[in-house]
Design goal:
This protein is α+β, with helices and mostly antiparallel strands. It is about 30% helix and about 15% strand. The longest helix is centred in the C-terminal third of the chain and has 26 residues. It is globular and about 65 Å long. The protein starts with a helix and ends in a 41-residue tail after the last helix.
């Protein structure tokens, strides 16, 4: 069976932040952390910064594509925090990131160059033995690429250039599939099939291709629905909603500092400390990815203790209302995907396409990013960036 690495040849490793404080579940904390770092000097600033071999306050770094952050060495920085950007974290979480290359060890500029309203990112999750969950997830926003279990995954943009130009697919793949199925096949259709049919394995993500066009159409229809749910209204779609009577509501307000998350399967109640949310379908609570329960991981990202005196310890003093709204949406997303899991299991590929001569394996050039010069990019210390 073909590997995802062959069908979508260009991919990158995850972003390597180098310091956890540059990402947070809320934007206000990032701005407060920036201000604290700018005020600090000397050894104190180095300690707060979290120096690595790749980055210190004295490192030179170019501007991230599409961003307007400074390029002078951070040790001389005295301005306001750059506007945080929303990014996809792990499989189904969304957080905020300071888009400043001086603060990030490896930011993958090639991904920022192609991130726009037409782009779609396929994130291949690391394989975990004897664990249930999706092999890939999709996002319209830039993903950090880390799998739920914390292991490195792989980020594969759908398009190699901004504006939805040049699909990141093996050359000739779409026309070859179109000939097999007797109809035109486009890039979005292939991604929908991948979302529905991809299988994790120790060797990488496997994507069986059916010989029967009817099976293909069935899988594409399922994958489109799964993709729409994960995009949460991006690319002109509708935000996911459960049917009336099944939508989760807050029955008791989440306390200022919830200390635990638990689930009552009989009453379909999710508890965050003394807070209560229901109904929460079992499909949402039981949803795992990379061997990790998604709702527990989401809660941990917002409540795990931070070392006092670090920038990461700068966080909301009380539980923000926005987090409750985000949790309700996440429950909806996981519940809807959980309901479709049965249809995924029933998707019988049957006879498969085992050879695509002249298409697979893809040429080496297809594995490299395209040359993209659409963004003005400033180099270190205000120099012109050489791309």
């Amino acid at each position: 069976m073909p590997m995802l690495d062959e069908l979508m040849p260009w991919g990158t490793a995850p972003l390597r932040l180098g310091r956890p404080w540059v990402m947070a579940p809320d934007a206000a904390s990032l701005q407060a952390r920036w201000d604290a770092l700018v005020r600090a000097e000397g050894v104190e600033q180095d300690t707060l910064f979290g120096c690595t071999r790749a980055r210190t306050p004295r490192s030179a770094a170019s501007q991230l594509p599409g961003q307007t952050t400074g390029t002078s060495r951070f040790v001389r920085e005295d301005g306001p925090c750059p506007v945080p950007v929303r990014v996809s974290h792990g499989a189904f979480d969304e957080q905020w990131l300071i888009p400043d290359h001086r603060l990030i060890d490896v930011a993958r500029p090639e991904l920022w160059r192609v991130a726009d309203e037409r782009q779609l990112f396929v994130v291949e999750h690391c394989w975990v033995a004897e664990s249930a969950g999706p092999a890939v997830s999709v996002s319209a926003m830039l993903p950090d690429g880390h799998s739920p279990a914390g292991r490195p995954g792989r980020i594969r943009p759908l398009y190699r250039r901004p504006g939805g130009i040049e699909p990141n697919l093996a050359p000739g793949l779409l026309s070859a599939l179109g000939s097999r199925y007797g109809r035109e096949v486009d890039a979005d259709e292939l991604v929908a099939w991948i979302v529905a049919a991809a299988e994790p394995s120790a060797a990488g993500c496997v994507v069986p291709l059916p010989a029967d066009p009817r099976v293909w159409l069935s899988g594409v229809e399922l994958g489109r629905r799964m993709t729409q749910i994960q995009l949460r209204g991006a690319r002109g779609g509708e935000r996911p909603r459960l049917p009336g009577g099944r939508r989760p509501y807050v029955r008791a307000a989440v306390p200022a500092r919830p200390d635990a998350i638990t689930y009552d399967a009989e009453d379909e109640v999710l508890s965050l400390g003394d807070g209560r949310i229901s109904p929460v379908p079992a499909e949402a609570w039981d949803f795992h990815a990379g061997g990790v329960r998604m709702l527990e991981l989401w809660f941990e990202h917002r409540t795990a203790a931070a070392e006092p005196g670090t920038l990461e310890a700068i966080r909301p003093a009380v539980w923000p209302q926005e987090w409750t709204s985000e949790l309700l949406e996440l429950i909806t997303v996981l519940a809807l995907l959980g309901e479709l899991r049965g249809r995924q299991d029933e998707l019988k590929v049957g006879p498969e396409i085992t050879e695509l001569p002249g298409v697979l394996p893809p040429p080496t050039a297809a594995r490299r990013p395209a040359s993209v010069l659409d963004h003005h990019e400033e180099g270190p210390e205000g120099q012109f960036a050489l791309l």
